[in-house]
Amino acid sequence: MGSERITLLSSREIDKMRKAGQLAAELLDHLAPMVKPGVSTLEINDEAERWTQAKRAKSAPLGYGPKNNPFPKSICTSVNEVICHGIPNAQQILQDGDIINIDVTPILDGYHGDTSRTFLVGTPSPEAKKLVEVTEECLRRGIAAVKPGGKIGDIGAAIQEYAESHGYSVVRDFVGHGVSHIFHTAPQIPHYGTKGKGKRIKPGMVFTIEPMINQGTWEAVMLDDGWTAITADGKLSAQFEHTIAVTKDGVEILTLRD
Known about the structure:
By secondary structure, the chain is α+β, with helices and mostly antiparallel strands. It has one domain (about 10-255): Creatine Amidinohydrolase (Alpha-Beta Complex). It is built from four helices and 17 strands. The protein has helices at about 10-30, 40-55, 125-145, 155-165, and strands at about 60, 75-80, 80-85, 100-105, 105-110, 110, 115-120, 170, 175-180, 185-190, 205-210, 210-215, 220, 230, 235-240, 240-245, 250-255. It has a three-stranded antiparallel β-sheet, covered by helices on one side. A three-stranded antiparallel β-sheet has the order 2-4-7. α3 runs antiparallel to α4. The protein is globular. The model has no long low-confidence stretch (mean pLDDT about 95).
């Protein structure tokens, strides 16, 4: 996950993060109309790459990771039981009733805008729709728990309490993270935990909150590709993500469209 030391960003750096965050939000909005039955995840990926290049930005996921197994595509597309890091491909055609998380991280002027949303494909089941709605509310509650002087555990506690009150579970194997000119850095932001525990939240911190909420068990299984994580029981998983900056008054969501 990169270095352990938490770097506080200057107002100039946060301004760069804001521009990258806006671009990431625009990219998700641009891709949204493609999310429909009959479209392959590779088509969505290729349009994301074309659009990102047209904006003179770079796709952070492309080639990210270990030298012997870098991530091969420009975005992550995680469908149904895929928790995160799904690899777009031509064979994966969206079906009516699917849910898909699209996770984008364009790099603009050296800084990363990291955000994701779970989209409903066609007409989802009431169960799928409810999971997606609860997951989005988990993100809202996690963000609302961020206060200067608070603790990182406050974020996970708020998310976990809400998710579990609906009978869902919170993924433990993947967490939010600090982000700047570095894709993944300190602090780690678990989406479960205890209020009042963990590192102190300070103005100038910039990090992602990205709860992954499962219908069944929280446990994940890694596929042989070394990237794709799926639910251990094959049940649905949803995720929403924003990049936020801690201010002296509270929080600014950097990946929300103006």
